[in-house]
Amino acid sequence: MFIFDAHLDLAMNAMEWNRNLTWSIQTIRESEKGMTDKPDRGNNTVSFEAMRKGNVGLCVATQIARYVKPENPLPGWNSPQQAWAQTQGQLAWYKSVEELGILTPITNSQELNVHLKNWHADNENTPIGYILSLEGADSIIDLSYLEKSYQNGLRAIGPAHYGPGTYAFGTDSIGDIGIKGKALLKEIERLNLILDATHLCDKSFWETMNNYNGPVWASHNNCRTFVNHNRQFSDEQLLELINRKAVIGVALDAWMMVPNWKRGVSIPQEMGVTLRHMVQNIDHICQLSGNSLHVGIGTDLDGGFGTEQSPADLDSIADLQKIPQKLKEKGYRDEDIANIMHGNFIRFLHNTWE
After folding, report:
1. What is the domain count for the chain?
2. CB-based contacts of 188-194 (< 8 A; 24+ apart in sequence)
């Protein structure tokens, strides 16, 4: 089945992890033997070959670069200018991969329709489609840079990532969106960008909902009812998004799927983490909404973790093809499964862009 993955950090892997995504999964793993600088070395799950094997023909691909003030202990860049430059290096990588015929940018409904038609006619040779997103807005030096980003193809943006940010507070922090955040939301709305609510702390989330009237989704977010942590959304937050006609992409990071996960210690096999936990989150959102129209796939695979922190029955992104059968076993109809695997996010894009 055709798959839309709403969150992949492709450029981060290429530029910061130095992974050549044109290589096979196994070749990348072999190249990283003995490396210890990242927790997921040798455990990668994403390559262009694996995406094509899994019929992941369309994705939301990110730019990401955190600006951190001196008192912020999180890793990141020491000025907004450095963070901006990092995102522009990532953009240059996407453009160079486009020139190889591997990726193609999707920025409007016409391009989306053409891509879907081409992919279904010849998925072996059609470039993989991607919608460009910015995860965390700290690299936006001032609002004129958001306009520049839009002109360069940006179509979605998350105001925050981890910790305190320039425009909002993110995961594991507490704070409001402030004057700068409110101004950013107005500019996002003016440009008809998609606001990604993922990573907003509870206070920033609700202030955002009270100050923003444009299109919103959550590209990679799970349910707090299963893992009681601020990274996940409460049922109240999920219902707010559902009422705004959003789509929530369910992620595959193991610590977000089962309670009591200890990073660097727990392993998927011992914790019993499998793709059924993704289905569990999908089903919970469907039960809240009363239908299958507000949930999709937003794996976040290789978003700083690999097989050491993914479902035990997933070796690569190609294994997403196991999900339709698991949904069927849960009682989902073919129409519902198609909605979840691609239809909801595609419909959302058409509604936003037309």
Report:
1. 1
2. 188/146, 188/157, 188/212, 188/214, 189/213, 189/214, 191/146, 191/147, 191/150, 192/352, 192/353, 193/146, 193/150, 193/154, 193/155, 193/156, 193/157, 194/133, 194/155, 194/156, 194/157, 194/352
- What is the amino acid identity at position 114? V
**H helix runs in 10-104, sequence order:** 10-15, 25-31, 48-53, 80-99
Angle at 60 between CA 316 and CA 230, to 5 degrees: 85
**Tell me, what CATH number does 173's domain have?**
3.20.20.140
Structure tokens at 54: 């899994």
Give CA–CA dist 352/275, Å, rounded: 30
pLDDT digits (tens, 9 = 90+) for 145-192: 999 999 999 999 999 999 999 999 999 999 999 999 999 999 999 999
73: number of Cβ within 10 Å: 8
- In order of 64, 66, 135, 199, 230, the CA distances from 88 in angstroms are 10, 13, 13, 22, 30
The whole-number pLDDT of residue 70 equals 84
Q: HSE-up of 132 (CA within 13 Å, CB side)?
A: 25
Nearest to 183 by CA among 119, 149, 140: 140
- Residue 307 is classified by DSSP as G
242: CB partners within 8 A, 6+ apart: 285, 288, 289, 294
Token duo for residue 196: 């990604």
Q: Which of 278, 215, 273 has its CA nearest to residue 5?
A: 278
Structure tokens at 198: 């993922």
Residue 146 to residues 156, 163, 186, 243: CA-CA distances in angstroms?
A: 11, 21, 11, 27
Residue 71 pLDDT more than 90?
no
Which range of residues forms the domain containing residue 223? 3-353
Maximum Cα interatomic distance, the chain, rounded to a whole number of Å: 53
Cα gap 67→76, rounded to integer Å: 6
Q: Which DSSP category does 159 fall into?
A: S
Tell me how far apart the alpha carbons of residues 97 and 116 are, in angstroms, rounded to a whole number. 19
Distance, in Å, from the CA atom of 279 to the CA atom of 297, rounded to the nearest integer, reads: 10
The average pLDDT across 293-306 equals 98
